[in-house]
Amino acid sequence: MFNWYVGLLAISGIVMLALAALKQGQSTVSRSINAIFGAVYLGYAIYLAFFFDGGSYLIFFQAFLLPVLMVVNFLRNRTPRTKLTDTQKAWREFQRTDQAR
Fold first, then answer.
1. What letter does residue 79 receive in the DSSP assignment?
2. Less Cβ around it within 10 Å: N or C end of the chain?
3. Are 49 and 28 in contact (CB under 8 A)?
4. Helix axes 2-21, 28-46, angle to 10 degrees
């Protein structure tokens, strides 16, 4: 149980840090929250894995809700790629060349 908890904490921290590194469709606040909590999760996992000597430790299963919510928030707020028709592509190219003159 302990090893699973440490592993899940580390994975959650890495995922949240990766989300913080991506700029696509996220606000600065969202990226900051991802970075802070990602560092905390990863730091606690490192502490438990390498420096913890035994005794009692706290397991917060509720803590795994935050990474799920942050991933859902990221996927919901990302900007989708626009699929342009041939006419729209031609019009945009015409606008670019017309403005360049």
1. P
2. C
3. no
4. 150
Q: Which residue's structure tokens are 């990766």?
A: 18
Of residues 43 and 80, more confidently modeled: 43
pLDDT one-digit tens code per residue, 64-92: 888 888 888 888 877 777 788 889 888 88
Q: Enumerate residues 6+ apart whose C-beta is below 8 A from 35.
A: 16, 17, 20
For the record, the structure tokens of 22 come out as 């991506």
Distance of CA 56 to the CA centre of its chain: 31
Which tokens is 87 given? Answer: 């006419």
Burial code of 35-55, b = ≥16 C-beta within 10 A, e = fewer?
eebbeebbebbeebeeeeeee
Which pLDDT score is estimated for 43?
95
Whole-number pLDDT of residue 101: 59
Quick check: 41 and 14 in contact, CB under 8 A? no
In 3-state terms the chain splits into helix, strand, coil percentages (rounded to 5) of 75, 0, 25
